[in-house]
């Protein structure tokens, strides 16, 4: 066999295993054989029994022994672990989850490549196999059991489509890595020019203000929609008014997800509220998975920003009879948003939904960017200029936001207030290149910042331990050092809002690459204890590296994006 043919056969075997790995976590007759078709080449086939033996015992069928020798042992071990990994979820949860509009679209796309013996779209078979495997109390939902439960004696793989998806994933990750390398290089050129003054206030530690926490649940009668949340009010003898910061959570999160950040910002003299968007919060998703509520509607893209504007209106009205609220200045508002909450705060800041872009990108949606599945729901809205911008918003801090398809360059360029974007280099939900790096270059506001956690994920900055989370999030998805990521989030957001909301110019010097570099040096353990002993803080290097740039590098970053010659042009804006 020639070397090129051997490589081709190895690639087919590799791709099959990789595709199974990708398909399963996305969540009659049992399957006993997997057949890969790639005309005009001969079909390749492997029995499920052989695959199961390999997963449990590590034994390679003789037919594939030569091919297996070309695969690194560590990769084979990874495949074994993936094939036997168990996902502890109830069959009712899986049934509801796979019945949601977004997941149905994902399964429909995967079903084009994973089909039953009839060679029809495998969406229904995929869903059946997932539910059946979850119902199996003895084995549970594992990739191997999923295959076993597939309601067809044979699983057909369209290898042409598999190759395309695998190649696109490879190119997508290549482009991400190349872009982050370029970003790091640009950020490092600013470190020397912006050396941090280590004798300044340590923004990782709590401020000097005490605060009181109040719960509220206000009804917006015009929409018949409740807006509950927590309000943190700093205690002060001063009669001066204080700005307010509103925190908007992501899908299936709640008011506690960023409670740590609300407390930290309140300790620096900001009034802070963490509201819940009842159309897509943790409780709504819990009801949905229990069959007690319908799936969230596309109109949530409109109702979330309206929740924030209603809260500000109601807070001002309540202040007329509640003296404790009169010091809150509702005309000086900062916003923090995560994921879909990041979309929410950008829309309130002035970003406009570009319906023509949504239509072009989503009919059909072939993107491997998972967040585009959610962004494409804008296609269900009537295409018109919705007035979501709130002029009271003065500064926005968006964590892992989405909007590359919803807003695009045209929509993002409408924002005029200061914006801080924070992303994770290993975020697979809202990937950093299309959802944070490109949007940063599209922003036209002169005060804009972009920070990237090199090993950060979509969940790095959340306080999972306190949040009443609906979705099970594994440690691998949370990523390295979430406590350190929270430290960075507290320090950077405090500097940003002190500068652009409280208008304290002395904090501007914290918003640069030099300070970000300084933050990566100390250990977070001491900072969590509230110490200001910088010698102790420097005792251990941080394992989660942080880079930060400002508007001055926007052109350089744009040029770096244009110079990328990878073949992933269709996967990013």
Task: Describe the protein.
It is built from 23 helices and 13 strands. The chain is α/β, with parallel strands linked by helices. The chain folds into two domains: 150 residues, no CATH class; 393 residues, Rossmann fold, CATH 3.40.50.1820. Helix 17 links the parallel strand 11 and strand 12. Helix 1 crosses helix 9 and helix 10 packs across helix 19. It is globular, with a radius of gyration of 25 Å.
Count of individual helical segments? 23
How far is the first residue's CA from the last residue's CA? 42 Å
Shape: globular
Adjacency order of strands in the biggest sheet? 5-6-8-7-9-10-11-12-13
CATH architecture of the largest domain: 3-Layer(aba) Sandwich
Q: Structural class, judged by helices and strands?
A: alpha/beta
Layout of helices and strands:
Layout: H1 3-23, E1 33-37, E2 44-47, H2 48-57, H3 65-69, H4 73-84, H5 91-98, H6 101-111, E3 114-115, H7 123-135, H8 143-149, E4 154-158, H9 159-191, E5 210-220, E6 225-235, E7 242-248, H10 259-266, E8 271-275, H11 282-289, H12 300-318, E9 328-338, H13 340-349, H14 355-362, H15 371-375, E10 393-399, H16 408-412, E11 419-424, H17 432-442, E12 448-453, H18 475-478, H19 482-500, H20 513-519, H21 524-528, H22 534-537, E13 546-550, H23 554-563
Parallel strand pairs: 1-4, 7-8, 7-9, 9-10, 10-11, 11-12
Antiparallel strand pairs: 1-2, 3-4, 5-6, 6-8, 12-13
Helix pairs in contact: 1-9, 2-4, 5-7, 6-7, 7-8, 9-20, 9-23, 10-19, 12-13, 17-23
